[in-house]
């Protein structure tokens, strides 16, 4: 079929500014005439010609409501803009980490490689006709677009007058694997629908010792549970955990991807992963059934993870530190050593202590995975993480939820390899408590104030910047509230100069540092679709072995309670 290119007149929309996680809005915003098209064309216009004309692009996402329509629109616009071919995961499904893997690893039958991707996701936000949709562009390294490009996209959205689309191009059946061929003014244009899991599974098998993990999962003493929260992780869970590693089918929860995530909130934490939390013995009810030894959950696009032991929660900050501390011995990919480690600024300093002890390069970066990607591309970082349930490594340029689960299973398998038939296996809780005994414990919590007035949030942050100039005044306020709280000895607004490209990121959060190593961090977040979110992070470091077993609420009470 030969298609024609249409130039469709349009006018700009306000507020099409992509953040660190792309553009996120309510579905009702995205379905407005020309809204998605404007953003996609603004992206094409921001890219250099060789990244568009004759290029190969990936278009897929987490399967949330409006995704299938969006895939067809982007295919038609890609054809009109001179793209040579589009790769689509079957049913439009690819996890965000899998997209990164496909860009970096997949080679087409004709030798083609992808130069970028449109990822359709709003991550851990709810889905459905009245909920959230999102889109972001990833680069040829598999990572999110840098700020220079997202700024250019935003500027283009403010001046756009027309977009290109092959509107009469027939819709591609994205449920069936195969290639659909078209012809247009620039020559042939192909759409290839491929298996969503194969490339990602191949990559995971090259990183981890699947045989060792399989032995752990085959032990009658080890039980396992994985909850995809009806997100795209379900497209990988059966293939990896059941077919490759031999787990029971019954160990998978909510692993059928759904457009509305089953009416739930696909955020892997103790609040929203309710069924898993109950099964792991951390809920309010007591079923009398013995919980599994290991549990994990994923978010909508499978880049985030939550790790649980039997009646035991592992904080994301502890998780990345424990993975880093055990990676060289337990994970074949890291057997020759770690290049360095990194964490986002709000994440607890548990990783810092591991880095210092193991003499590793260490980096503290702003929130946003692209900062890790720069370090990885420069060969300076192997493992990194965020407190917001994001963990990953340099195998791709996105955080990777299933990778984190396999990392934990690898550590458990390694710790138990000589004891697989013994009386008692080393547990998740054993590993965490041993880590605390070795490195100390970072008590940590976060409070989110969501959908607050954006103007008021900005005023609050500006007022705290002013407070930083008078620590005596701050300490008067602190001691007036709690006399048992340590003195504030430093305060700053976090600013990051990228050691790779020299770029400077300002206004990344306000930090109050206490004499005893405690921290209070305030940060404006851009991951919501409406209003502003203020996040407050509270951290207390404890080295005394007699005090590392306290309840977090008790340990943090002086910093939390008025």
UniProtKB/TrEMBL annotation:
Keywords: Carbohydrate metabolism, Glucose metabolism, Isomerase, Magnesium, Metal-binding, Phosphoprotein
Family the UniProt entry places it in: Belongs to the phosphohexose mutase family.
Gene3D superfamilies named in the record: Alpha-D-Glucose-1,6-Bisphosphate, subunit A, domain 3, Alpha-D-phosphohexomutase, C-terminal domain
The protein's assembly and partners: Monomer.
Entry annotated with the keyword RNA-binding: no
One Pfam family per UniProt: PGM1_C_vert_fung
NCBIfam families cross-referenced by the UniProt entry: PRK07564.1-1
Record-given protein name: phosphoglucomutase (alpha-D-glucose-1,6-bisphosphate-dependent)
Stated role: Catalyzes the reversible isomerization of alpha-D-glucose 1-phosphate to alpha-D-glucose 6-phosphate. The mechanism proceeds via the intermediate compound alpha-D-glucose 1,6-bisphosphate. This enzyme participates in both the breakdown and synthesis of glucose.
Cofactor(s) annotated in UniProt: Mg(2+)
MF annotations from Gene Ontology: magnesium ion binding; phosphoglucomutase activity
Enzyme Commission number(s) from the entry: 5.4.2.2
Biological process per Gene Ontology, one example term: glucose metabolic process
GO CC aspect terms: cytosol
Domain Alpha-D-phosphohexomutase alpha/beta/alpha, chain residue ranges per copy: 16-163, 199-308, 317-418
Catalytic function, reaction form: alpha-D-glucose 1,6-bisphosphate + L-seryl-[protein] = O-phospho-L-seryl-[protein] + alpha-D-glucose 6-phosphate; O-phospho-L-seryl-[protein] + alpha-D-glucose 1-phosphate = alpha-D-glucose 1,6-bisphosphate + L-seryl-[protein]; alpha-D-glucose 1-phosphate = alpha-D-glucose 6-phosphate
